[in-house]
Amino acid sequence: MKLHTPLALATLASALVLAGCNQDNAAGKAADKPAADAKTADADAIPGLKDEKERISYMIGLDIGKTLEQVKDEVDVDTLEKALRTSLEGGKPLMTEEQAAKVREAFAQKIQAKRIAEQMQLASKNQKAGQEFLAANAKKPGVQTTPSGLQYQVITQGSGPKPKESDLVRVHYTGTLLDGTKFDSSVDRGQPAVIPLQQVVPGWREGIQLMPVGSKYRLWLPGNLAYGEAGTPGGPIGPNATLVFEVELLGIEKPGAGPAGPGR
């Protein structure tokens, strides 16, 4: 894990943008260039940034700031500026490459440990919230709980066949978190999903096999029957999150029928 990489990428991206601008400017030279330059200068003026160099510098600073946002509590801006000046001016660094590598490695381990601790804390919080919700939900009229802990409620009961685990099913569905946040919906996309039941999370696989074709159910999936302790890294579903799905089973399909839905 090279934590200096985002800074390098931001700087490189800025340089590429500048190179593209230079090429465009060279291609667009004309006889009336002085008048055009004056108009451009007026259009590009930004209060607090007196010229192009300051605008470019500020833009690069914003890019760097964004890359460091997640570790901002670990960064001393004055020291960062000192190192940046040393590097740009060709000065003598206060640390050797070997020392920098050692600091980088220790920092990476610290950040990783912090992220793991945060993930574990969130997993515990989500698990407790899910258990409390499901205990109360189980007492509501029409809600049934299977031995695995899956809960479901029949909205519309169909009269068709029930799918097997080896089947492909065509469904419309909407998935939400316990707080009502929507994270996925074939309904919103306007196209039913065709899903191999063997490739979805356990709660889906179990719940849809309970449904005759033509049914619409509401499913509540405990974290262990959904995305577990991992959740969806970088996505909307946290570790051990309990999920709610409203699913309409439209049909049982032949292999190769269409796009898939929620995976494992």
Give me the secondary-structure topology.
Layout: H1 5-27, H2 33-44, H3 52-67, H4 77-89, H5 97-137, E1 143-145, E2 151-156, E3 168-177, E4 182-185, H6 186-189, E5 193-196, H7 202-209, E6 216-221, E7 243-253
Antiparallel strand pairs: 1-2, 2-6, 3-4, 3-5, 3-7, 6-7
Helix pairs in contact: 1-3
Give the uncertain stretches in residue-range form. Answer: 1-24, 26-31
Radius of gyration: 28 Å
Q: Roughly what fraction of the amino acids lie in strands?
A: 15-25%
pLDDT average, as an integer?
A: 85
Cα separation of the termini: 27 Å
Please work out how many helical segments DSSP would assign. Answer: 7
Helical amount among residues, as a percent range?
Answer: 40-55%
Shape: elongated
Order of helices and strands: HHHHHEEEEHEHEE
Structural class given helices, strands, pairing?
A: alpha+beta
Tally of extended strands?
A: 7
- Describe the largest sheet: 7 strands, antiparallel
